[in-house]
Amino acid sequence: MIIISESLDHYSNSILIRKFIGKVSAPEIIESWNDLEENNLINTELKGIINDLTTCDLNMDMESFKVVIKFIKKHPILRSLRHAVISDSPEIIVFPTMAEGREIDLKIKPFSTMESAKDWILSQY
To answer: Cα separation of 105 and 99, whole Å?
Structure first.
């Protein structure tokens, strides 16, 4: 499992990109959120995060998905951000799709391209 976090070139203060590589599970996703917070990569200037899952093998079921959602909800700064999820896999895209419909207090949306994810994050600003 590798999760690479980087700023989007022209939007370095507004958008953070997280690229997931290899096998990734809920505990690793939560650990990566904690690392971002500890390293001050998540701040009030940040508008959203693009989670690129196009090259990962996501090891998640409904129970572990609920754990990730609960973690995001417990952290006000994460809860306030827009979370774009990029994937072309039906097995992966089902999770952000469910979150978009069921978690009305969170801003999570699935996408198939980086450009459309970026546009959505910046659409309110």
So the answer is: 10
β-bridge partners, 5: 18
In angstroms, rounded to a whole number, what is the distance separating the alpha carbons of residues 84 and 82?
Answer: 6
Contact 89, 47 (CB under 8 A): no
Three-state DSSP class for residue 111 = strand
Query: Residue ranges per domain, the chain?
Result: 2-122
Task: Read off the pLDDT of residues 16-64 as tens digits, 9 standing for 90 and up.
Answer: 999 999 999 999 999 999 998 898 888 888 899 999 999 999 999 999 9
| pTM of the complete model beyond 0.85 | yes
Q: Which CATH superfamily is domain 2-122 in?
A: STAS domain (3.30.750.24)
Q: Give one DSSP letter per residue of 44-69, joined into a string.
A: TT--EEEEEEEEEEEE--HHHHHHHH
Separation CA 84–CA 39 (nearest Å): 21
